[in-house]
Design a protein that fits this description.
Layout lengths: L7 E13 L8 E15 L4 E4 L11 H12 L7 E6 L11 H16 L6 H12 L2 H9 L2 E7 L2 E7 L6 E6 L6 H6 L7 H20 L2 H7 L6 H4 L6 H10 L4 E4 L6 E5 L2 H14 L4 E5 L7 E6 L2
Parallel strand pairs: 3-4
Antiparallel strand pairs: 1-2, 1-11, 2-4, 2-5, 5-6, 7-9, 7-10, 8-9
Helix pairs in contact: 1-2, 2-3, 2-4, 3-4, 6-7
């Protein structure tokens, strides 16, 4: 349905949180989680209104609105007057759970819905990646599951894996943010060849381990040499979290995205709950949440009047 036609007065987009890198999958692997943001788009008579977010994002710099406009520009159509209401739910900003990807994907899907779904998921992924800068968060936000992605001549290619329902992902969310720019600043300009080889094999094995529920392979394949050894200096409690994860015998744990969330993985609910309790006992101002992988990715729902 074309923007502005009678019949659609509101679109609601539901987008999952994501956890990127997943150990060795630096800038290419991401996982969708069953925590969601909902963004409502209502056609209005003129202008645009953004609410539900901090005042400094209630303007044209808002990522939801930017991606919304990008789709209309890509399709050479005028941007309709719109009211956007953002509810990010339990997805905090700058914590490594894909908050920016959530905003970008929400805006793009809503615009595509108003444009009669003119773009495929693959085209939306490439467009969203142009805004985000790398596909490890936007791909799973769109497709769900575990996605491994790469770009070629600005086009994004992704392959998707289901994730075993056995796995619980325990998000340990500190009370401080880590900006992506700061996390990239601590990375070296060059890396040893052997470190690249170390990650390559593990990245391929990790995808299959998560899909098939291979606990032993998951434990060994989630190791990393490309970013976590350098980024851990940004986490004052890194060693304490490592000790807690070992004490509670999780299968593995890793820095989610660029942080500050640290994500543990276990096949046992009692382990997930015990680790969460231990983390909150030690760091009472933190948050903990236990997730499964989301299987569906972002969805949009149109509401009609008349």
């Amino acid at each position: 349905m074309e923007a502005g036609k009678a019949g659609v007065f509101m679109i609601t987009v539901k987008v999952p949180a994501t956890s990127a890198n997943v150990g060795p999958g630096f800038d290419c692997m991401g996982l969708a989680l069953n925590a969601y943001a909902c963004v409502h788009f209502e056609l209005i008579d003129k202008g645009f209104i953004i609410c539900g977010c901090p005042a400094h994002w209630q303007n044209e710099d808002n990522l939801v609105y930017q991606s919304f406009c990008r789709v209309f520009a890509h399709l050479h159509r005028p941007v309709p007057p719109i009211k956007i209401t953002i509810d990010t739910g339990m997805i905090p900003e700058a914590r490594g759970l894909g908050s920016s990807a959530v905003c970008i994907v929400a805006g793009a899907l809503a615009a595509n819905s108003l444009c009669d779904h003119a773009l495929s998921k693959a085209e939306l992924l490439t467009l969203c990646n142009a805004i985000e800068g790398h596909p490890d968060n936007v791909a799973p936000a769109i497709y769900g599951g575990l996605c491994i992605s790469f770009t070629k001549q600005d086009q994004v290619f992704t392959t998707r894996y289901d994730v075993s329902r056995q796995y619980r992902f325990i998000a340990m969310i500190p009370d401080y943010p880590i900006l992506t720019a700061d996390a990239r600043r601590v990375l070296p300009d060059t890396l040893p060849y052997e470190d690249a080889l170390f990650n390559l094999g593990r990245c391929a094995a990790l995808a299959k381990a998560l899909s098939e529920g291979d606990h032993t392979m998951l434990t060994h394949a989630c190791e990393d040499r490309l970013h976590q050894p350098y980024r851990k200096v940004l986490f004052p409690q890194y060693d304490e979290i490592d000790a807690l994860c070992q004490k509670h015998h999780v299968l593995t744990w890793y820095i989610s995205g660029s942080g500050s969330t640290m994500m543990a993985v276990s096949e046992k609910q009692e382990v997930a709950e015990a680790l969460s309790s231990a983390v909150l006992d030690k760091f009472p101002t933190w948050q903990c949440a236990i997730y499964h992988a989301d299987t569906q990715g972002a969805v949009s729902k149109e509401e009609h009047h008349g």
